[in-house]
Predict the 3D structure of the following.
Amino acid sequence: DAGITQSPRHKVTETGTPVTLRCHQTENHRYMYWYRQDPGHGLRLIHYSYGVKDTDKGEVSDGYSVSRSKTEDFLLTLESATSSQTSVYFCAISESVSGGNTIYFGEGSWLTVV
Amino acid sequence: KNQVEQSPQSLIILEGKNCTLQCNYTVSPFSNLRWYKQDTGRGPVSLTIMTFSENTKSNGRYTATLDADTKQSSLHITASQLSDSASYICVVSLQTGANNLFFGTGTRLTVIP
C-alpha cells in the first residue's frame, strides 16, 4: 500500500464552519490530488498540486482551497462548509502524469455537514 | 464531451462464477485506461493499466481487455470469491496534463455464497 494518510477519517461539522482535511504522503511523489466521491458521480477532481506551492483547480473547485507547503502534505480547506459539501474526500498521489503511471489513493475522509 | 460509462451499475453473482464488467469511453486523445477496485469504506486500488497498444492485461483472476478502435474495455473476473465484492471503477486518461482523468461511476459487484 502506498504511504498515504488522511485525517480526519470522519468528521461532522456545522454549516458555516471552516474545515481542513489533511493528506500526508511518505512516497515523495510530486503530484497530489483531492477528489470527492458522491453517489451517481465518478470521482471528481477538486484541486491538485504539481509541487510545493504549485496548485491548480479541478472540475469542482468552488468553495474549496488548498495549500502545499511541504512535499509530503496537501491540505484541503472548506472555508465555510455547506451541506452540498457532505461527501467522501479522497487524496491521491502520483510520481508523474505520463501514461502508465499509477495513481494511489488514500483511504478517504467522510465529511458530514449538518 | 469526454465521458466514461460503465455497465451494469450493479451485479450479483454466485461464488465461483465468472463475470464481465463493461466500460465505454469517448475520451480523446486517449492515453491509457485503468481499472480500480474499491472495497466499501476504502480507497480505490489499481488493478490494471493499459496503454493504447495493449489489448489485454491480467492481474491474477482479473483480466482487462481494451479495444481502442471501438473505445471499449472489459474486466473479466474468473472464479469469483466473496472478497471480490466491491465497486470496480474504469478510469480513462487523456494524453497530457494532471487534470486528465475521467472516472466512470463504477459497477457494484456482490458475490454471494
Summary: The mean pLDDT of chain A is 94. Chain A has no helices and eleven strands. The CA atoms of residues 4 and 25 of chain A lie 4 Å apart. The interface with chain B takes residues 4, 31, 33, 40-45, 48, 50, 56, 58-59, 90, 97, 99-100, 102-108 of chain A (CB under 8 Å).
